[in-house]
Give the backbone structure.
Amino acid sequence: MSVEIKIHKNETMDKAIRRLKKKLERESIIKDVRAKRYFEKPTEVRRRKKKAQAFTNMLRQRYENM
């Protein structure tokens, strides 16, 4: 999971850090690291995925009926 950004000429560090954060977010690296910080039981993983799927299905049905 190596992410690199090259600092452009005359670019401030704040701008470079902002670009790095955006790149990490787009590749969902921070989300994965936070999820793997603690062990999650397989039943909890299934329950979480089932809950997320139910939510997306509910949203799909809501917007199909409009």
